[in-house]
Amino acid sequence: MLAIPSKGFRRSLTAHNIDLSICCDWIESSVFFLQEELTDADVVDVLRENELYATQDFAWEFVNDAFSHIRDRARLFGHGYPIEFQSKHRLRARGTVEAYGAYGFCLVLSLPGAYPKWAKNFGQDFNEQGELFEKLTAESVAASLSGWTVHSTGWSRTATKKLKAVVDEVASLLGEGMGDIYTWTRDSANEAGLDLLCFRPFPDGRVGVPVYLVQCASGANWEQKLRTPDLRIWNKLVTFAAEPKKAFSMPYALQERDFTRHTNVVDGLLLDRHRLLAPGKASINWLTPALNKLVSDWSIDRIATLPLLEPIAV
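-> structure tokens emitted (314 positions)
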């Protein structure tokens, strides 16, 4: 198995002090990335041996909950899920990271929350992962929302457009007018929190179509970006005939309560891992081969350095 996460795991005596989402990702990663079979009893033993639980029964209570959530993920993603239940209590990998590139990529992006020291080994340049995650989000939205147009607007190393050019693009694509850029933004602004423009055009070519302004957040600081892009600003940059909605994309898998709470903050469409990878239920090959290779290669380099569980000294 992978090493016990250094964050989200605290000793549990009378209350469960382990983050359920981090635990499920840890179990998934151990099975999928290491290509090993794992039982619920194995997980209980590891938690007990590392003194995270004082009693067997209390550990089983938590692990049963974790396996129930993994079972829910398996039902939700269908064949797009890289892990299967060999029996009620045993998990095994369905295939390799190359075969399930999108899921592997999102899972690796989520692991800095569990292994912050491991994540620091790759430096502070998040441009590559950000560009890849934006492309994955674009292909996901295009696959999920048939008939919608998806246009990348975000700043990157390979696309260093200034805000005026981005606003001009958005306005032109939607047939809307441009507002007053210089009054409401800084001269140094790039995309003002907008990574993707998603809209549903009609044959008449008129304004007032459904529009989502999308922020793609691939890093551990995603909660700081939940309120972007700011519609108060964008409604001044573009003279929308009808107010657009926001969307927010992230690689993390949220529990129900967290999903509802964060959706309220976004005040729009929240794409966590469950929704972002929904196209995989219909086909595991929903990503274009070129992007699948890019995200797989990026993931495999990092998977090779993940910390492994060390045996307990007797």
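The radius of gyration is 21 Å.
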